[in-house]
């Protein structure tokens, strides 16, 4: 395998020395970029874009042409797995994701099986291969998946933006059914991420977007437990290189020590956490990724630069920081503010890595 020209991101995840703090942005390919909207219009809709490896490669590369980010992330969605399970994913214009056939009846839940990623999610595996080719070893490629619990939220509720009443009712009334869904999802996610790694993903991230909606005890039993299973089942070394695993529970700031115990390499932090305090809590066990409030990117370049400086100062000197937003970039972000962020991280972080 030829060497990566820029492996700063992978080294930071493994807590190795770097010259500057690497940066990428959650949802860095997306609607805030006019070129994304053009490609999406050519595809017809978002899902057709995800399912077309040529176009998925094109939009993955778009933010890299604009900003010197230190990683690319596969352009896809976490809901490809439930779609491959037969639930019928669709995106109504102007609304979030929805399923035609959400899980309602016990027999539907019992019939659920983990899809074979090569057979049923071949378009994702193909996109990973094509993106690696397009990247030409410039920066590493991140693969990703949703967490079993976050996927279950959409599979049971049938859409996002709910108060999770249906999934939580099942959690307390029929935990056996929810565990069946979660165990199936954990198998599916493990196979899916391993297929992405096999195809060339050089790091993987698990998005537990809704784990933070759970109680302290339920988080451990219904989300963390299954992410731990996944971390143990992942291919952690591929073609002679380590494949770091990043775990991100939005709203999980209270549970960082428990998340660290999964055996992952890094934790993603949302913006509600002070990254310096988080570092003191997890010690040298994991790297940290985050955690600028994405709303700051709605302001202006000078303010972005000041706020970037605060996050870098809070983390402090030394290794193990990957700069990112605390959640996905807003579609209303002016691209020049994203450019200011990347530049500020690269410039302002150097003093923290000297000596
Ligand atoms: O980071 C990247 O650039 C990679 C692409 C990516 C997308 N979705 C593209 C996308 C990633 C990593 C995701 C993950 C994802 N998808 C999550 C977990 C991360 C998070 O945000 O918490 C979740 C919960 C989903 C499910 C999903 N997909 C929702 C709730 C929505 C609608 C949200 C919105 O902004 O409208 C999507 C659609 C989606 N996924 C878009 C993009 C670029 C916008 C779709 C469009 O072009 O219309």
TrEMBL record:
<dbReference type="InterPro" id="IPR006361">
    <property type="entry name" value="Uroporphyrinogen_deCO2ase_HemE"/>
</dbReference>
<dbReference type="Pfam" id="PF01208">
    <property type="entry name" value="URO-D"/>
</dbReference>
<feature type="binding site">
    <location>
        <position position="77"/>
    </location>
    <ligand>
        <name>substrate</name>
    </ligand>
</feature>
<dbReference type="GO" id="GO:0019353">
    <property type="term" value="P:protoporphyrinogen IX biosynthetic process from glutamate"/>
</dbReference>
<comment type="similarity">
    <text>Belongs to the uroporphyrinogen decarboxylase family.</text>
</comment>
<feature type="binding site">
    <location>
        <position position="209"/>
    </location>
    <ligand>
        <name>substrate</name>
    </ligand>
</feature>
<keyword id="KW-0627">Porphyrin biosynthesis</keyword>
<feature type="domain" description="Uroporphyrinogen decarboxylase (URO-D)">
    <location>
        <begin position="22"/>
        <end position="31"/>
    </location>
</feature>
<feature type="binding site">
    <location>
        <position position="327"/>
    </location>
    <ligand>
        <name>substrate</name>
    </ligand>
</feature>
<keyword id="KW-0210">Decarboxylase</keyword>
<keyword id="KW-0456">Lyase</keyword>
<feature type="domain" description="Uroporphyrinogen decarboxylase (URO-D)">
    <location>
        <begin position="142"/>
        <end position="158"/>
    </location>
</feature>
<dbReference type="InterPro" id="IPR000257">
    <property type="entry name" value="Uroporphyrinogen_deCOase"/>
</dbReference>
<dbReference type="GO" id="GO:0004853">
    <property type="term" value="F:uroporphyrinogen decarboxylase activity"/>
</dbReference>
<feature type="binding site">
    <location>
        <begin position="27"/>
        <end position="31"/>
    </location>
    <ligand>
        <name>substrate</name>
    </ligand>
</feature>
<feature type="site" description="Transition state stabilizer">
    <location>
        <position position="77"/>
    </location>
</feature>
<comment type="pathway">
    <text>Porphyrin-containing compound metabolism; protoporphyrin-IX biosynthesis; coproporphyrinogen-III from 5-aminolevulinate: step 4/4.</text>
</comment>
<comment type="function">
    <text>Catalyzes the decarboxylation of four acetate groups of uroporphyrinogen-III to yield coproporphyrinogen-III.</text>
</comment>
<dbReference type="InterPro" id="IPR038071">
    <property type="entry name" value="UROD/MetE-like_sf"/>
</dbReference>
<dbReference type="GO" id="GO:0005829">
    <property type="term" value="C:cytosol"/>
</dbReference>
<feature type="binding site">
    <location>
        <position position="154"/>
    </location>
    <ligand>
        <name>substrate</name>
    </ligand>
</feature>
<comment type="subunit">
    <text>Homodimer.</text>
</comment>
<protein>
    <recommendedName>
        <fullName>Uroporphyrinogen decarboxylase</fullName>
        <ecNumber>4.1.1.37</ecNumber>
    </recommendedName>
</protein>
<keyword id="KW-0963">Cytoplasm</keyword>
């Amino acid at each position: 395998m030829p060497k990566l020209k820029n492996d700063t991101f992978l080294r930071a995840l493994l807590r190795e020395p770097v010259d500057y703090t690497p940066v990428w942005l959650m949802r860095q390919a997306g609607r805030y970029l006019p070129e994304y909207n053009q490609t999406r219009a050519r595809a017809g809709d978002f899902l057709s874009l995800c399912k077309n490896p040529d176009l998925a490669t094109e939009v993955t590369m778009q933010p890299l042409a604009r900003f010197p980010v230190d990683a690319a992330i596969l352009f896809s969605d976490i809901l490809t797995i439930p779609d491959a399970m037969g639930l019928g994913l669709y995106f109504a214009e102007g609304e979030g994701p929805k399923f035609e056939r959400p899980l309602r009846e016990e027999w539907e839940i019992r019939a659920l099986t983990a899809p074979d990623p090569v057979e049923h999610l071949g378009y994702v595996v193909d996109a990973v291969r094509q993106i690696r080719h397009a990247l030409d070893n410039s920066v590493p490629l991140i693969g990703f998946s949703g967490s079993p619990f976050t996927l279950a939220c959409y599979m049971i509720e049938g859409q996002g933006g709910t108060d999770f009443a249906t999934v939580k009712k099942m959690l307390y009334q029929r935990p056996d059914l929810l565990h069946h869904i979660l165990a199936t999802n954990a198998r599916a996610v493990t196979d899916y991420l391993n297929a992405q790694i096999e195809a060339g993903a050089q790091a993987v991230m698990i998005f537990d977007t809704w784990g933070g909606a759970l109680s302290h005890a339920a988080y451990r039993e219904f989300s963390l437990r299954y992410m731990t299973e996944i971390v143990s089942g992942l291919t952690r070394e591929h073609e002679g290189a380590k494949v770091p695993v990043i775990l991100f529970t939005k709203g999980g700031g209270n549970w960082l020590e428990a998340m660290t115990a999964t055996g992952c390499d890094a934790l993603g932090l949302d913006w509600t956490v002070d990254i310096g305090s988080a570092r003191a809590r997890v010690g040298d066990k994991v790297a940290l990724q985050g955690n600028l409030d994405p709303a700051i990117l709605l302001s202006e370049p000078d303010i972005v630069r000041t706020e970037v400086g605060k996050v870098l100062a809070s983390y402090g000197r030394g290794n193990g920081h990957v700069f990112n937003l605390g959640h996905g970039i807003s579609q209303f972000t002016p691209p020049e503010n994203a450019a200011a962020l990347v530049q500020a991280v690269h410039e302002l972080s150097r003093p923290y890595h000297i000596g």
